[in-house]
Write a structure and sequence with these properties.
- By secondary structure, this protein is an alpha/beta fold.
- Helices cover about 35% and strands about 20% of the residues.
- Strands 1-3-4-2-5-6-7 form a seven-stranded mixed beta sheet, sandwiched between helices.
- The longest helix is centred in the middle third of the chain and has 17 residues.
């Protein structure tokens, strides 16, 4: 896909803040520090549109980005080991779950997992929730440039087994590995 425009629309902390128009949306979800913002910037070919940080859990709201004035990408708060008060982390989880459960514009959830690690209990719970609620989703393994080819192959097979999934897409934000394949998945979901 050729990206001709990518604009940050807004951060939303509650449902009333979500953009009201019917444009389709692609959500990015995964644990804190999995590289959601880096992947979004890499996918769009921009630097700094989605804010990245070395501190896990920086994304505390749902962040909406309008692409080609046609559809939106949505960066959801990460789950896991973010340094934040428990009450605030619980709110993020509720906010993300409400969005995933209620949002009619949502056409695809892209579930990011770290290719370096075995899928966590929370990764597996999210996957089961998406399956149980019949939400279209696709699994992408990030940070693939941090592993040797042998380690990467072994870890992807392990992830495919853990998720009982036929395909886990390998992605590297720094090398743009998997970028075109991910755009194909997104384009297909936008046509459905």
């Amino acid at each position: 896909m050729k990206v001709t425009s990518a604009v940050f629309v807004k951060s939303a902390f509650q449902e009333s803040d979500w953009p009201p128009d019917p444009r389709p949306e692609i959500a990015f979800l995964g644990r804190s520090n999995v590289g959601k913002s880096s992947l979004i910037n890499s996918l769009l070919g921009t630097r700094g549109l989605a804010r990245t940080s070395n501190t896990p859990g920086r994304t505390q709201s749902l962040n909406f980005y309008l692409i080609n004035d046609r559809f939106r990408l949505v960066d959801l708060p990460g789950y896991g080991y973010a340094k934040a008060p428990k009450a605030l982390k619980a709110e993020w989880g509720i906010s993300a779950e409400n969005y995933l459960a209620k949002r009619e514009q949502l056409v695809l959830s892209i579930h990011l997992v770290d290719s370096r690690h075995e899928p966590s209990k929370q990764d597996l719970q999210l996957h089961e929730w998406l399956k149980h609620n019949q939400k279209p989703h696709f699994i992408v393994a990030t940070k693939s440039d941090k592993l040797s080819n042998n380690e990467l192959r072994k870890n992807i097979v392990r992830a495919e087994r853990a998720f009982n999934s036929g395909r886990v897409l390998v992605y590297s934000a720094t090398e743009k590995r998997g970028r075109e394949d991910l755009w194909k998945v997104i384009e297909k979901s936008l046509k459905s």
